[in-house]
Amino acid sequence: MLPRGGGNHGTSRPRTVGRAGGPRIKLNAVPTAGLAWRLIATRGKAPPRIVVRGPARARIAVSHPAPRTLPEPPERGLIRLPDARTGAAERVGQRRLGRHISGAMETIPFRKMHGLGNDFVVLDRRRAGGPLAAAGARALADRHTGIGCDQVIVIEAPRDSGAQAFMRIVNADGSEAEACGNATRCVASLIAGESGERRVRIETVAGLLDAELLPDGRIAVDMGPVRTGWRDIPLARAMDTERVDLALGPLSAPVCNNIGNPHATFFVADAEAIDLATLGPVLEHHHLFPERANIGVGAILGRDRIRLRVWERGAGITRACGSGACAALAAAYRRGLTGRAARVMLDGGDLDIAWREDGHVIMTGPAALSFEGSFDPALLAG
C-alpha cells in the first residue's frame, strides 16, 4: 500500500464570425496563456466539429449551419484597359482563385499534460497505431514546428496481465527512457479517471509501477527499489557510487543511483549558481556513463528539504524530474545529509519523496491536463 499524503480565469462571450451564407465559426474560449489555436476552413461540405478542451474550460468549436457548397470566389484584381490598336477593353491582372482547400482530413488525437511543468504529449495507442519512430517523436516535441514537450508518452496495451496499461517514454531527441516519475503520475491520473479506481498499475520497460490517487488530488507512485551498484547504474568501471570519481568545473564527486534510469547527483551550496545548461550535456555524455545519465545539482536546505535542478538525459533542463527527485533524496540520505523523507523543491514546484525501509522510493505530487487536440499524421514523418 502506498502512503497517503496529505488564476481565476475570465470568460469570454461566445462570438460567431463569418460571411453570410458561408461557414460560421463559433468561438467560446477562455484566454489561456501560451496557447495558440489554428482554424482550418473547408469548402464543399460541412467540416467536422473541432473542440479543444482544457482544465481552464478553454473551447474552440467550428461548426456549419447546414451542408452546402460555397459559391465560386469572384474574379478579383482584374483591371480593364483599352487595347492600343482596337480600343477594346482587355483584362489584365490576377485571375480567379481556384479551389485549393481540401475537406476534412483524418487526424491523430493527443493530450498535452504536465507534472510541475515537465510536459508531455500523450498518445493513446491501446487500440490502434504502431510504434512511434524516433523522427516522429522529435517532430512532435519540437516547440517551434510541432506541439512541443520534454517527452512523448505512448500508452499501449499492457503485456503483463496485472497492469492496466503499458507506458512508453520517448525523449525529445527521439531516444527511449526507462522511467519518468512525472509522466507516470499523468498516465496514472488518466487510467484512474477511466476505471474509477484509485489504485492502478502501469507497466514500463523498467518494470511495474503502482500508483494511487490520494484524497487531496495528488498521486503517489512507488518508483521501485533504488539500485546503487556500479553495474546497476551502470558505470563504465567499478567504483564507490556514494562518491564517484568525476569532476567538471564546480561540480565533483556525485552520488550515483538508478531509479529505473541512471542519475548522478552533485551537492552544492547554491544550485542556482551552477551553469547547468553548459555542464549538463557534457556530464550526460561522459564516458563514465555508457547509457548516458541524468544530471542533478542539489542544495541541502534542511534535514527535510532539498533544492534540485536537473539536466534530463535526452531532454535538457526541465522544470521538474520525478525520478531525479527520488535519486536526490536517496543520494542525500546515503551521504547522511537528510532523513529518509524530504520535500524536493524543483523549478516547477515541490515533490514529496520517501525512501522506505524495504528499499522502495515513493514519489508524491500533482498531475495536470493542459489541453486536448489533434494533429496531421504527416507531422510524424519528421
Could you explain the architecture of this structure?
The structure is a single chain. This protein has 382 residues and is mainly β. Among the domains are: 108-213 and 369-381, Diaminopimelate Epimerase, Chain A, domain 1; 226-364, Roll (Diaminopimelate Epimerase, Chain A, domain 1), CATH 3.10.310.10. The protein is built from four helices and 24 strands. Residues 3-82 and 88-103 have low confidence and may be disordered. It is globular and about 55 Å long. The chain has a 17-stranded mixed β-sheet that branches. The protein has a three-stranded antiparallel β-sheet with strand order 1-2-3, with no helix packed on it. It has a two-stranded antiparallel ribbon with strand order 4-5.
